Amino acid sequence: MIRSYFGLSNHPFAPEGAALLKQQQEIFDTLIVHCQQGGMCLLLGEPGTGKTTIKEMLRRYDDKRLITPIVSRTLHTYRNTLRLLCQAFSVDFHHDVFQCEKALVEEVFLPAL
Question: 41-51 burial, b if ≥16 CB within 10 A, otherwise e?
């Protein structure tokens, strides 16, 4: 309805045509380096800071050179985010946050068989 009213062909807030701001580009570049080196990153921030835009740019990045699993949820506490990560990596969730983080880090750095 908004597009037809204003005569637009694309959704006005679609991430496809979005360009990164300078600070978002710096974060994106850092994430690319971590992904290429086999690192694991968790991107957290206040609503409206560009997390989804960065996620979309990562998703569209050269998939022949980069494998990026993305878990995208909002309105979760850090504990719930850890629970989602544990589920994504098939790691048992520990109620102790430090044990959970340790198990995730160990899973990420296990050599591929």
Answer: eebeeeeeebb
Q: In this structure, are 25 and 5 located in the same domain?
A: yes
Q: Which of 93, 24, 86 is nearest to 52 (CA)?
A: 24
Q: Is 53 within 8 Å of 31 (Cβ atoms)?
A: no
What residue spans of 1-113 are helical by DSSP H?
2-6, 22-36, 51-60, 78-88, 97-108
Band of residue 106 on the pLDDT scale cut at 50, 70, 90:
confident
Domain count across the chain: 2
Q: Exposed e or buried b for every residue in 71-94, given b needs 16+ CB within 10 A?
A: eeeeeeeeeeebbebbeeeebeeb
Task: Kindly state whether residues 78 and 65 are assigned to the same domain.
Answer: no
Going by pLDDT thresholds of 50, 70 and 90, the confidence category of residue 72 is low
| Structural domain containing residue 82 | 74-113
Which of 56, 44, 49 minimizes the C-alpha distance to 14? Answer: 56
Question: What mean pLDDT is predicted for residues 65-74?
Answer: 62
